[in-house]
Write a structure and sequence with these properties.
10 strands, 7 helices, alpha/beta, binds 2-amino-2-deoxy-6-O-phosphono-alpha-D-glucopyranose, about 30% helix, 7-stranded parallel β-sheet, about 240 residues
Amino acid sequence: MKLIETKTKTEMGVTAAEIFKDEIAKKHDLILGLATGSSPIPLYNELAAMCSAGSIDFSQVRSYNLDEYVGIGGDHPQSYGYFMEQNLFSRINIDKNNTFLPNGLADDLDAECARYDKLIENFGFADIQLLGIGPNGHIGFNEPAGLFSRNTTVVELAEDTIDANSRFFDDPSEVPRTAITMSVRHIMCAAKIILVANGNKKEIVDKAMNGEITSYIPASVLQMHPDATVVISEE
Ligand code: GLP
C-alpha cells in the first residue's frame, strides 16, 4: 500500500482529486466507486472546483456508492443519497441517471442487495474505488466480523459505528441500526483504491496498513490489493 501524508485536509482533498483527474483524463467513461463520511468532503470540494474550472469532465462517468442506511430515504438529510447530492452530484457535470446508491427504503432488502450486485456486475468493478475508514477499521459498512460477505448485504452496524455516526443526527436514537453495504470482494476487485482519512484515524490506519491482515480490521485486507493508496492528513 502506498501512503501519502498531507498537512491539511484541503491538501488531502487536492492530492486525491489529482489522482481522479488523471484517471478520468485517461478514460472518460470511468466507473467510480464513491464513499460518504466527513473524510471525502475536501476531495469532493476540490472535484467540484476542478469541474467549475473545466479541468475535469464527469459527463460520461458512472458511479455507484458503497453503502446506505436502511430505513431512511434520499430526502433525509443524513441519508447517503442526500449527502452525495449535496456534496458532489449537484456540483459537477455528472448525469444523475448515471449515479447509483442502494435503496435503504426498499420493501425487500434481499432483493435490493441482489439488484445492486447485478448493477455492479453489469457495470464492471470500479476503476477507482474511494474509501473512508471507520474508527473500528470498517470499509463501506463492512464491520469487523469473522466472515466477509461475498456480495452486497444488509449489516447490523457495530456499536462504535453507531456512536461515531451519531454526531450527524439530532438525536442519537435516530441513528439507523442497519445498512446495506457493498462487499469487501467488490471493493477488492476495483482496479485502484484510494482511501482518505483525517488525522484522528492515524492509529487505525496504521494498524490496517502495517498490522495483521484480519477480518476484525476490515481495512487490513487492502494490504493485499495491488494498487491501494492511503491519503491521510495530519489535521
Ligand atoms: C461511515 C461510512 C464509511 C466511512 C465512515 C467514516 O461509517 N459508511 O464508508 O468510511 O463513515 O466516516 P468519517 O470520514 O466521517 O470518519
